[in-house]
Design a protein that fits this description.
Blueprint (H helix, E strand, L loop, with lengths): L2 E6 L2 E6 L9 H15 L6 E6 L10 H4 L4 H20 L4 E5 L2 E3 L1 H7 L3 E4 L4 E3 L13 H9 L1 H10 L2 E3 H7 L4 E2 L5 H12 L4 H13 L5 H16 L5 H14 L12 H5 L2
Parallel strand pairs: 2-3, 3-4, 4-6, 5-7, 6-9
Antiparallel strand pairs: 1-2, 7-8
Helix pairs in contact: 1-3, 3-4, 5-6, 9-10
Length: 270
C-alpha cells in the first residue's frame, strides 16, 4: 500500500509511503482517494494528519508516468488530482500536513489543501510545473496566493524555485517549524488543541472561514449566519453551554465567551 491510515484515538494519520520520495503517481493518488473514502465513514475521527514516510512528504507527480499519458488518460489524471485536493480541503475536521523533506508539485498542493502546515528544518517547498511546461493542477495557483500573497506566489510559481523552511515560515506558507525528530509530537499536539471543541461547531467554523476566501464578503456573512443559528438553538448543543457555566461557577469567574478566563479545553470537555 502506498497510502495507509493509522488511527490514534480520535486522530487519523494518513501516511504517504512510496519510497524514496513518495511521488504522487496514479497509485498514490488512488491510495489517497481510498483513504479519504475510509475517513468519510469514520464519524469518530476528529482530526486528520497527512505525513510522509522515508524522510519526505511528497516530491510531486511522477514525470516519467505523466510523459506516457494519452489525451484521455491525461484528462482523467488531471480530474483526479483536482478532486483529491478538493476533498481533502472539504473534510469537516481540522486537517494538518506534517512536512519534512520535499513537498513539491502535487505534494505541496496536498499540503496547501490542509488547514495547517507544520514542518521541520529539512522541508523544501516548491511548484516546479512551469519549467516542465505545465501549471499546478491541484489547487496550487489558487491556494498559494491565499496564503502568501499574490506577488510572492507568482515568484514561486514563475521560477519553480524551492522555498526552505525558514522562508516558508516567514511568508506564511507554514505555521510552525519544529526541530527534527519532533514532527509527529508537534502535529499531534496541534490536532489535540483543535479537537477540544464540539465537532459540530468546529465543522461550522471551518466551513465559514473557508468561505471568506471563496467569494464576496456578503456571501460569506450569509453563510456564517446560516451556520451559526442552528448551533445557537436549544437542543443537544445546550450541554456545552451548561458545562461552560458550571466550570465558570466552580472557578468563580465570569463565563462570557470573550473573557479568556477559561481555556477552550476546560470549557467544553465534560
Amino acid at each position: 500500500m502506498t497510502v495507509s491510515v493509522r488511527y490514534e484515538h480520535e486522530l487519523a494519520w494518513v501516511w504517504l509511503d512510496r519510497p524514496p520520495f513518495n511521488l504522487f503517481d496514479s497509485a498514490q493518488q488512488l491510495g489517497a482517494d481510498m483513504a479519504l473514502c475510509e475517513l468519510r465513514e469514520r464519524p469518530d475521527v476528529r482530526a486528520v494528519l497527512f505525513i510522509g514516510a522515508n524522510g519526505h512528504f511528497s516530491a510531486g507527480g511522477d514525470v516519467a508516468e505523466m510523459g506516457t499519458l494519452t489525451a484521455a488518460q491525461a484528462a482523467e489524471y488531471a480530474a483526479r488530482i483536482s478532486r483529491l485536493t478538493r476533498e481533502v480541503a472539504a473534510l469537516p475536521v481540522p486537517v494538518i500536513a506534517a512536512v519534512e523533506g520535499y513537498a513539491l508539485g502535487g505534494g505541496l498542493e496536498l499540503a496547501l489543501a490542509a488547514d495547517v502546515r507544520v514542518c521541520t528544518p529539512t522541508a523544501r517547498f516548491g511548484l516546479p510545473e512551469i519549467p516542465l511546461g505545465l501549471i499546478p493542477g491541484a489547487g496550487g495557483t489558487q491556494r498559494l496566493p491565499r496564503l502568501v500573497g499574490l506577488s510572492r506566489a507568482k515568484d514561486i510559481l514563475f521560477s519553480g524555485r524551492q522555498v526552505d523552511a525558514t522562508e516558508a515560515e516567514r511568508i506564511g506558507l507554514v505555521d510552525e517549524v519544529v526541530p527534527e525528530g519532533t514532527l509527529v509530537d508537534a502535529a499531534r499536539a496541534r490536532a489535540l488543541r483543535y479537537t477540544a471543541g464540539p465537532p459540530d461547531a468546529l465543522a461550522a467554523a471551518k466551513r465559514a472561514t473557508d468561505a471568506a476566501h471563496e467569494g464576496p464578503l456578503d456571501h460569506g456573512l450569509d453563510l456564517e449566519l446560516a451556520l451559526f443559528t442552528p448551533l445557537l438553538t436549544p437542543g443537544a448543543r445546550t450541554v456545552h453551554f451548561r458545562s461552560f457555566q458550571k466550570r465558570g461557577q466552580r472557578a468563580g469567574t465570569s463565563t462570557g465567551t470573550g473573557t479568556g478566563l477559561l481555556s477552550v479545553g476546560d470549557s467544553v470537555r465534560e
